[in-house]
Write a structure and sequence with these properties.
The chain is of the alpha+beta class. The chain is about 30% helix and about 25% strand.
């Protein structure tokens, strides 16, 4: 029987990229392109089971923001991740990526990641009313 605490997605291969926007680009324009055209390219990559963009829009208390956002991707396993990276759809995504993001400051799993047991400790939403924003302009 599933419980609210400790529910997990077991055995997925998860990757998280921490990104910075290109300094010469307007941040709002990058966010728009990231949500729309870049997100659409990501959704075409074979093997991605879940794709989440986290747009950081406010500075943390008492410090400057180091990154502009994160991207979370879930794959069935490492083989699916590697197959995705070898696909023409991934190459199209990377070709667009360099137009938006400062790769010198990006931290991510270019060749990292791992099998995770993800524990959702709280998700404040009733069934079918998840508090998230869908991609779009």
């Amino acid at each position: 029987m599933a419980t609210d605490l400790g529910a997990s997605i077991v055995g997925v291969y998860k990757c998280v990229w921490m990104i910075r926007f290109r300094p010469e680009r307007d941040p709002e324009e990058v966010r728009r392109a990231w949500r729309t055209t870049h997100g659409e390219l990501a959704l075409k990559v074979p093997g991605i089971k879940r794709y989440v963009q986290n747009h950081w829009v406010g500075d943390p208390s008492n410090s400057e923001r180091t990154f502009d956002g994160t991207v979370d991707c879930w794959f069935e396993d490492r083989a699916a991740f590697e197959a995705a990276l070898a696909s023409p759809e991934w190459q199209a995504l990377m070709d667009d990526d360099v137009l938006l993001f400062d790769r010198s400051g990006t931290v991510g799993p270019a060749f990292e990641g791992g099998i995770v047991e993800e524990y959702v400790m709280r998700w404040d939403a009733s069934p079918d009313q998840r508090p998230y924003k869908a991609a779009g302009p």
